[in-house]
Structures are given as C-alpha cells and as structure tokens.
Amino acid sequence: MNLNELTIKEAHNLLEKKEITSVELVKAHFNEIKKRDKDIHAFLSLNEEEALEAAKKVDERISRGEPIEILAGIPAAIKDIILIRGTKVTAASKILENYIAPYDATVIKKLKEEEAIFIGKTNMDEFAMGSSTENSAFGPTKNPVDLERVPGGSSGGSAAAVKAGFSVYALGSDTGGSIRQPAGFCGVVGFKPTYGAVSRHGLIAMASSLDQIGPITKNVDDAAAVFEIIRGVDELDSTSVDLDWQDYWNSPLDIEEIKIGIPREYFIHGLNPEIEKNIKSIISKLEKEGAKIEEISLPYSEWALATYYIIMPAEVSANLARFDGIKYGYSAISHQPSAISRLMDVYLKSRGKGFGAEARRRIMLGTYILSAGYYDAYYIRAQKVRRLIKQDFDRVFKEVDVIITPTSPTTAFKFGEKTQDPLSMYLADIYTVSVNLAGVPGISVPVKEVAGLPVGLQLIGKNFDDVKLLKIAKIVEQLTKEIT
Amino acid sequence: MALTKKEVEKIAELARLELGEEEKEKFAEDLSSVLGYVQKLSEVNIEKVEPITGGTGLESVMRKDDETKCISDSQMREQILSASPNREDDYFKVPSILE
Fold this sequence. Notes:
The structure holds 2 protein chains of 2 kinds.
Chain A: H1 8-16, H2 22-40, E1 43-46, H3 48-63, E2 75-79, H4 106-113, E3 117-122, H5 156-163, E4 169-174, H6 180-186, E5 189-192, E6 212-217, H7 220-230, E7 259-263, H8 273-288, E8 292-296, H9 304-319, H10 332-335, H11 343-354, H12 357-370, H13 375-396, E9 402-406, H14 422-426, H15 433-438, E10 442-450, E11 453-461, H16 466-483
Parallel strand pairs in A: 2-3, 2-4, 7-8, 7-9
Antiparallel strand pairs in A: 1-3, 4-6, 5-6, 5-10, 9-11, 10-11
Helix pairs in contact in A: 2-3, 5-6, 7-16, 9-12, 9-13
Chain B: H1 5-14, H2 21-38, H3 74-82, E1 87-88, E2 91-92
C-alpha cells in the first residue's frame, strides 16, 4: 500500500480500521516532500513538528475507540494566502515575507474542528496574480508531471503538492481560474464553489467580488468531502450565504435526467485540437449513456476576459492599498530609514520594494481604471458587461443543469514561455474567468492526457447548485475511467 | 492607446509606488497593451444595462457592531500591534505629516 496515493476516503477508512495510524500517514508525506520537493518546490513553509503532534492526538482518540471526523488525522496543504494563527503567511510576496498570522481563517477554524493536519503552506503566484506560479517572489513551482513545465496558477503549489503525493488534499483560492487551471495542468480535481458558499474571512484579498476558497483533491468525492466541511455562512464574511445544502452521498443522479450544455463560443480558435477531441469524446460518451446534450450560446463570453481585466485590477488596487509599510509587512521604516523624510516616502518605498512586478502592474492598472475621468469608461462599463455575462448564465441554466468546457485552451506550458508578454499569460484564463464574474461554481476534472500532459474538463453549475455539479462531475470522472 | 512615461509617473504616484526609470518604460508598454485589449468592451451595447458588483446579488448585508467579535483576545491584539515596524505603546508611529 502506498500511503502517498490514498484519497481522503481511503485514508479515513484505514485510520478507522486501525490499519494505519495518522502518524504513519503524516510521516509518509513528509518523507516524500523531503525526497522530491527540492525539485518541485510546492511548499513555502513546512509544519512538521506540529503536524506530528496533531497526528498523535488523533491516533490516541482512535485507540480509545472514539469515532473520528472524515478529515481527522489526514494531511492537508494550505495555499499560503490563507491564515493559520501563529504561522507565517506570505502570499508569496516579499511584502509579507516575515508576517505571522494573528488569527485563523474561518476555513482553518473549521478544519481544526475536524482535527485536520496542516503539513505546510504552498507556493503560488504573488497575491494569487498569475497562471503559472512564476510570479512567486520565492521561485516557481514545477509541474510534477514534467519538471520543465509550469504547474499552472495561481494555486500551483497546492495542485503540485496533491499530484506529487505530498499531501492528500489541499486548499486553494480561485479569482479567475486559480484552482481549476492548475488542477487541470497537474491532473487533479479542482473545485471553485459558488461565490458566497465558503467564507473568505482570513483569505488575503485579491479581488473581493471574485475570490473564493476551494479544495484541490485526487477525486470528486474528496472535493465534496472537503466542501461539506468548509462551506457555510460566517458572520465575519458578509458575502457568505446561509443555505440548506443537498446531500451529496446518498442520492446519486440518474444520468438520463441530466441536461448538459455545450457552449459553442468555447470550442473555437486557440483551443488545442487534441484537447477538444478528448473533451468531445467524454461528451459523446455522456450522450450514449443517456444524458441530454444541447448546444448552447453564451454570447458575452467574448468580452469576459476584458471585463475581468478591468474589475479584477480595480479591486486589486483597492485591496492592496492596505500594505502601507506602517501596520505590518515590509517597511522602509526598518529597511531604508535614511531614505525617509516624510510619510509619503514610507508608502512609496515600502510598496515599491515590497511588491513584485505583476502585483505592481495590476495595482497600476487598477489605479488608472479607477482614476477620475476613466472610472465610467472602464469600471462602470465593465460592471454593466458583467451583468450581461451573468444573464447569459442565468438564461442557459433555465435549460440545462451543467455546462461542459475545456478548463484551459492548452496543456501546461514551459517556464518563461509567457512571462514576457502579460497579455499572453492572461489568455490562459480565457475559459475560467466568466465563472468568477457570474459567481457560479466550477470544477476541473482530469480527462485523457495529450502527449503525456494532463487535460482538465471544466463543468460549470448554477449558483448554489454546487452539490449537483459535484454529482455530475463524479459521473464524468467515472466515464473517463471507462474510456481510458 | 499608448500611455506616456509622464502618465505612468502620475499613476504610480496615485498608487503610492516608487518605480525605477527602466520600469516606467516597461510599464508604459505593458499597461498600454492591456488597456488596448480591454477597449474591446466598447463593442458591447450597454444601453439600459445596470452595473452589478457581484454574481450572487447580495447587497449591503449589515451586522451589529460588536467589539467582542473582532479582536477578542489580548494575545491577538498584541500580535497585531507588534507586527508594526514602528510602534509606540499601543500606537502605530508614522513620520511627520506636516511640512
């Protein structure tokens, strides 16, 4: 038995049956990290001592015959943009290099109640801005499938950690595709819940109207298991929503009851034809098994990326204004005291030095967009188009249960391929950003590889229909196994 | 549309970012290319469309102001204050703001 290949459910069953201990499980993952993370660099920091201590406690409970929670004793890797009290949280930025989180994110609080084991914090693009982890201030993560290629991003460290067997599952955050795209590039499952399903309290904010925390896992069942624990309304996030969620486990869907929409705008120029072929073969398989397949149109998709690249940087420039060199983080007050004569110098020098190139680029972009004279032309216009994009989805979801698209137009690209031209990097998100603009849930499930590289199939669901989306994703997962 | 170096300097000042000379030119190029791309939105007819701020339609959710819900323990309070590069007692200290 290879402990590094276990899913959450498998690990949980083995722990309950006392065939393995949590300490063994945790040690096996740290051993693998020590062996291979020099090459992959999925982690920014590790938490071995505390993880083993927490594992011992779970083992004691098991040996006393106590029932344990589904995530108890099981290793989790956390994207380094989510706060765990008393541990470093950097957002992969120099500006937070030595920052210690003073409180727990709500998702962490919930995982702690489950006695989940935090093994470390994963690498990412700085402040979650990027699609390759090349924007990390601490060096990129490599794709465990092919070390010459990026793992995707921004949650590239989380996806790589799960793929490499460094962690049973991971948490990421998704603003324009940052969970789904790296999951697709690494060949694991990545789930972005409906906006408001999971509390964002304790997630370092990038673009608040788009950000959402979600799981990266080895299969769809595990994504559902983690989602059940982390979701729920939270007083500390006023955009979180109180809902009675459907049951995922005990009422499987009948494939003949499912209506699937295929948006014609997503299968056009720029899509790798081999990826298209693999996605389409799953669609025909679904049809053969009895699902209803319908061609649909999301006409405003064409403007989604442009809308996103106005709304996101506008929110970025407002959110990142909090990094001022005065309250916390890198400060010119400590590092260049002789260069400071007035308050303005603290701001200019702390921020100029602390933020990396992409963060600065987006802050500049957002500042320009929100500045007097441009606000209406850019920001208000983008908010109006955002409504049209959302209306596209509202209309389509009156007809279908779920939409299927590729997760990305290409497989994982090589390092440096897109770093010179920011626009070419932004195009990596072309299939994922609409989902965040509309608030709807999306999940990437691995399908048949192309030239040895993983391919993700994206399923998009209706707002707060996350459980149904997961059930349909599970059907796709099973059919993929039958085909390959 | 192309931004001039002077415009980049103005934006950098508004954004409170110190930029190097070379970087100003690189940013003029990068920002112009992205702004050129987002111009695409002018193709969309937005007449009679109201702007939205998010996908789920929630607006102005209020809660009671309750200080025990925020910084509820003294250890957290201390951690927050001690993260400051220049602290005096329970205050953040800043350089003089008067010329």
